[in-house]
Design a protein that fits this description.
By secondary structure, the chain is α/β, with parallel strands linked by helices. The chain contains nine helices and twelve strands.
Length: 324
């Protein structure tokens, strides 16, 4: 049953891609990119999806937005099931759910001015007609820390941080409630990252936004997120508040990730937990617990049985037989 305070609820989401070969394009296999992900998001909350490259974080975000069709599971937004909906309804949902892309340059049309980039979504959805549209563009540019005069410029005339501010302004054009940020600061310099993080926090407080933040930088997640979901090979292996996950990680994979975070104190020593081997292929994921080939604490039944996501404390859940 959906919590009334929840904005979004994702239940057992699956996104599988068919592998086709031959003249007849026969399906010879599948890529299990997302394989049973569940989480919820409250209004005004920030949820961080973290994990190694290829774990399915971005595909989960795209699946939530309907940019990739879900193979299974359900997505409920504001109490309404939206996993498979009509084109008209999906068009309306675009106004409510937006995305900030990782690369601020390739996500902007180089042939359009910033003014055109921001005005196009409003024109498509019939919002802010006439003079109000230009005023809205100027308002958005000011909100992300850019001069309204910059609306006449093209994307190549901006720095990376400025382009990402334009990308954030574009995500705000239609007054969304939910924004998915696909590693929105990973392509920026460290000094610029702090500015963008502070900007996202300020915008969330002013407009009451809810964020799903996709990231591999655990320090960024710690500053922005209320809760964290750690993903490994298409599944959530641990979730909870960032204080629970960072302060008392339970899953061996989460422990290994956090042990690799640098400590800004030369005299402080941290015991590293080195994982053996590489991340398995999502085409042929391991049986049982997906993490067992690399887990230093694996048991015999980890090879065959699939652990479930169990609560070990209030709001803190782990997918591991060590806690069942």
């Amino acid at each position: 049953m959906m919590n009334m305070a929840s904005l979004l609820e994702v239940e057992n989401l699956k996104v599988h891609f068919a592998i086709k070969r031959g003249l007849l394009s026969r399906t010879v296999g599948r890529v299990f990119a997302v394989d049973g992900v569940s989480f919820d998001l409250a209004e005004g909350e920030t949820l961080g999806l973290v994990g190694e490259s290829g774990c399915g974080k971005t595909t989960t975000g795209l699946g939530v937005l309907g940019m990739i069709e879900a193979t299974g599971g359900s997505i409920t937004y504001k109490g309404e099931e939206i996993t498979r909906t009509t084109p008209k309804k999906r068009r309306h949902l675009c106004r409510e759910m937006q995305m900030i892309f990782q690369d601020p340059y390739s996500s902007l049309n180089p042939r359009l001015t910033v003014e055109q980039i921001l005005a196009d979504p409003m024109q498509i959805h019939g919002l802010y007609p006439g003079k109000a549209r230009a005023e809205r563009v100027a308002f958005l540019l000011e909100k992300v820390g850019l001069s309204p005069d910059y609306g006449k410029r093209f994307p190549h005339e901006f720095s990376g941080g400025q382009r990402q501010r334009v990308g954030i302004a574009r995500a705000l054009t239609l007054n969304p409630c939910l924004i998915v940020g696909d590693e929105p600061v990973s392509a920026l310099d460290v000094s610029i990252q702090a500015q963008i993080i502070n900007l996202l926090i300020d915008l969330q407080e002013e407009f009451g936004l809810s964020y799903i933040l996709i990231a591999h930088d655990l320090a960024v997640v710690e500053h922005l997120c209320d809760r964290v979901a750690v993903m490994y090979l298409g599944r959530v292996v641990e979730s909870g508040t960032y204080k629970d996950v960072y302060g008392a990680p339970k899953h061996p994979y989460t422990q290994a990730l956090l042990s690799a975070v640098p400590v800004p104190e030369p005299k402080q020593r941290k015991q590293r937990m080195i994982l053996q081997g590489d991340v398995p292929s999502p085409i042929h994921p391991p049986s049982g617990c997906h993490f067992h080939p690399r887990c230093p604490r694996r048991m015999d039944h980890c090879h065959t049985a699939i652990p479930t996501l169990q609560e070990v404390a209030a709001g803190h859940a782990v997918r591991c037989f060590l806690y069942e």
